[in-house]
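Lecture 7, part B: from sequences to assemblies.

Below are the input chains for today's worked example.
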Amino acid sequence: MSAGTSALPLVGRDRIIGYGLMVVAVLCVVGPFAWILMSSFKHQIAILTGAWSFTPTWSNYAEVLFGRRSDFVGNVRNSAVVASVSTVLVLVVGTLAAYSLHRFRWARWVTTGFLGWTLIFHMIPALTLVGPWYIAFRELGWYDTLGGLILTHVTMNLPMTVWLMMAFFSEIPPEIEEAARVDGCSPLEAFRYVALPLAVPGLIAAGILAFIFSWNEFSIALNLTARDTATVPVAIARFAQQYEVQHSQMAAAAVISTIPALLLMALGQRFIVRGLTLGSVK
Amino acid sequence: MHILNRWFKHWSLLPAVLLFLLLTIYPMANLVRMSVSTITFAGGAAHWAWTPLANLQLLTNDAVLGAAALNTAIFVVVAVAIEMALGLALALLVARLSRGKGLARTVMVLPILVPAVAIGSMWKLMYNYDFGVFNQALTAIGFGPVNWLGSTSVALLAVILVDIWHWTPFVFLILFAAVEGVPTDVIEAARIDGATPRQITWRIIIPLLKPALAVALIFRSILAFKTFDEVFLLTSGGPGTSTELVSLHLYKVFFEQNQLGYGAMLSLAIIIAIVAFLLVSRRALTLRAMA
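Predicted structure of the full complex, as structure tokens:
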């Protein structure tokens, strides 16, 4: 059955106006990106005078990445470690939990309780829990460690991962796994060799989103890291918060911080859009 | 292997449950304990004093909290209303164009995926009084510059505009997917019966979008309530308290004023408010589904 409003195309003058409005919307979204990209290639003096014609320079990037007073390469390394390790962990934990809830008969209170809790936890601001985390992590010696931050990011991304994976598992026809069971697969083997390979698109969608959300996360990292463990968003905020705002370096750092999202976007856009809208539509 | 198989159902859920217990349930229990205490740090160790009512008193006497709650309410209502309207209009429009859907979708995903801190940086540059693009444009057409982030009357609108730019695309994506899911036969049947495109849009498509609209509205309201990153970067709540949001206030109480006990009390109040909102909106959703 076909779907969508292609049966209702805009015609004549409306069509021209419609395309015009769409172009305006696209330009509104792209404009700020173009502006900061342009700023990142300006000398601080060209930014401060608001010049539109200027000689592009790499100096801001050089200063941010290799400057003697800049830790940005370390920040990028911290962010990369935290985002990739927490993504792997949340995929393992979340996929197992999603499969367990989807496939096996749990008592109602377990399912409702678990999923209800993921919803509540997803909705409350992370900042409400950062205080207790701070106290506990100081006592455990996890404050200012990448491991502590990774644990919080795994927890933060767990609700989304569980929901996404449950949605993807529920799209696998139950007959396939039943056939595998009849052929002598154990439940574990049915998961490992039948359900998991079929859920790979879900793993990609959840993985990309978890990586990006961890890479972007600011309010937890701001309060649980110090100089050596600071992540990229924390570093960018430092540029902006200095007594004299380093506009050109802030712009360059911000542009660098968008690279992973743009790369993953180019590679897996279909998965991302599916992941972002899945569950909200059904 | 045998044990793994036998207990697969149970051990597969266990890591997630443990994680939630240790990193969400336990900290929340701790919030309750903290909220009736005054905590001071001396010599690297935390000292807890039992002061059951002091934090509650701080909560009721907190003048900044009142301003923050009002700003947050304005922020959420204005930003989300405009995002819903713009996102819906754009979704209905793009769905009726034969080309450019892919482009629109690609572009609209971008603001959702880049760090909010980077978005804050962008707009901080664009809003700059001396050299920002907005004031350059205003000056070029003969108006005076506006102190976007530095004047008490404009700053809140300025941060709301950033939120609209950031999140209208999200509403668009959800509603666009829903519009693309409307069955074609319904629309064709209405056309054959002589309905105009306007009637089809208002009487058929939009009513069919209700579930997606409700989800987008609830998600956006709560996410808008949680907004922190961009505003921290743009204004940090200033000038004065004109852009102070509840989340920013909570951050300041916890980590700038080091009032861990009062911060916990504030956190609990926020959590209770959100759970209440969820319960009410869930009721509204199920009622609508039954009607």
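Note for the exam: Residues 222 and 274 of chain B are 8 Å apart (CA to CA). Keep this in mind when comparing with the next example.
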